[in-house]
Write a structure and sequence with these properties.
Keywords: DNA recombination, DNA-binding. By secondary structure, the protein is mainly alpha-helical. It is built from 14 helices and eight strands. About 50% of the residues lie in helices and about 10% in strands. The chain has a three-stranded antiparallel sheet with strand order 1-2-3, with helices on one face. A three-stranded antiparallel sheet has the order 6-7-8. Strands 4-5 form a two-stranded antiparallel sheet. The N and C termini lie far apart (about 85 Å).
Length: about 400
């Protein structure tokens, strides 16, 4: 936001050069964090107007005005390109220091800084936190080769294959994490391509590992009923319980619930409430008629003031901690998370015979193939249930009869 961006030029009257001048410095503050930038401009202390931040000498004052204008332009450009700006990024852009990293690890640190700013903006730190591990794995691989860093121009296809082998053999990672690390490496290289540091990606023929189909963590109908029947005395944990139940009955992810406002709630001609809003992840509209239990939860919070969200949610990590603890308290074996509620909703829909098309609309899926995963889950459960039934029947048939 523009209101967080401030420029304060000043001079240090205690540090006067032999020619009687002192340096004009500039303190830039963004979101409460400041950094000092040297302007390269000098003036006599008696020529400095501290109230207006200007120099009485027209020539030097024009240079200072141009410097401030360059700061404004750089801030606007970074905000447009990256969606967020830090004081450090702005200083680098103005001074020309490390604006385009030429080496792999420096490029990774620059991208992690962008992700950190983005995490604060969207109230989700998962991608930023994951980048810490993948960046560390890159550093470990370079150290195993006796390198502190490597220029983008020195990266070859052999580098990619060796990195993948290092992750599997030396660090013992499974295919999922190996792919995360390769994705991070490719991300940095494609940024270098976009910046003109490289002409093309030398790792295009380094293939990702084949991994198992994703496991959709969800809870059973009986576990959801147990959760609904067990209110919590702690207000924070009770909020987490209500949000898990609400998402299990609406399919809304954390970001969707966090940004749910009264304007997204409508009512049919029969008086039934529904939620209609674009999903934060895909911008595909979701339409969900409200289950009576979800409606009861909704009525406990803000449904009238459209300047505030419906639910007073904490940050994602805090909510995850409370939901995880809730699962432990209730004896739910799975590692409970808020997103498990969304998977629970999808599984319940398909198991109740709701069509894939209707389920996709309610879940806001951009691709119906994403919804069909839930059909595979229920088919798999039916097969396992039938296998258990056959085992019990066979065991009864094998029991010796009483003589």
């Amino acid at each position: 936001m523009r209101s967080t961006f401030k420029i304060l030029p000043y001079i240090n009257r205690k540090r006067i050069k032999s020619d009687g001048t002192t340096a004009v410095l500039c303190r830039v503050s963004i979101d409460g964090k400041s950094i000092l930038i040297t302007t390269g401009i000098f003036c006599r202390p008696e020529d400095w107007n501290s109230q207006t931040g200007t120099i009485r000498q027209p020539r030097e004052n024009n240079r200072l005005a141009e410097f401030r204008l360059n700061l404004e332009r750089a801030y606007d450009r970074l905000l447009k390109e990256q969606g967020a700006v830090s004081a450090e990024l702005l200083k680098n852009a103005v001074t020309g220091v490390a604006t385009i990293p030429q080496t792999l690890l420096k490029g990774g640190e620059a991208e992690r800084e962008r992700l950190r700013l983005r995490a604060e903006q969207i109230h989700s730190t998962s991608t930023f936190r994951q980048s810490k591990t993948t960046q560390l794995n890159l550093q470990q691989f370079l150290q195993s080769r006796g390198l502190e860093d490597i220029a983008f121009s020195d990266i070859t296809e052999e580098f990619g294959h060796s990195f993948k082998l290092f992750l599997k053999k030396e660090l013992g990672y499974a295919s999922g994490h190996v792919n995360h690390c390769l994705c991070w490496l490719n991300r940095l290289i494609y940024i270098a391509v976009d910046e003109g540091v490289l002409r093309c990606n030398p790792l295009e023929d380094v293939h990702y590992e084949k991994k198992d189909p994703p496991k959709m963590r969800h809870i059973s109908r009986s576990e959801l009923k147990r959760l609904m029947a067990t209110p919590m005395p702690d207000p924070k944990v009770e909020l987490a319980r209500r949000m898990f139940i609400f998402s299990s009955l609406t399919g809304l992810a954390y970001a969707d619930v966090y940004n749910l406002y009264p304007r997204h709630i409508g009512k049919t001609s029969e008086g039934r409430l529904y939620i209609r809003k674009p999903r934060e992840k895909t911008e595909v509209e979701t339409f969900v008629p409200l289950h009576p239990a979800a409606r009861q939860i909704l009525e406990l919070y803000n449904t009238t003031d459209d300047t505030r969200p419906v639910f007073p949610l904490p940050k994602r990590d805090i909510l995850w901690y409370d939901i995880h603890g809730l699962g432990v308290m209730l004896g739910i074996q799975k590692n409970l998370s808020h997103h498990a509620a969304r998977h629970t909703f999808g599984t319940l829909l398909v198991s109740e015979g709701i069509s894939i098309e209707s389920a996709a609309k309610m879940m806001g899926h951009a691709d119906i193939n994403s919804t069909q995963i839930y059909a595979q889950i229920t088919d798999c459960k039916i097969s396992k249930d039938m296998d258990r039934l056959m085992e019990r029947r066979n065991s009864r048939n094998e029991m010796p009869m009483d003589e």
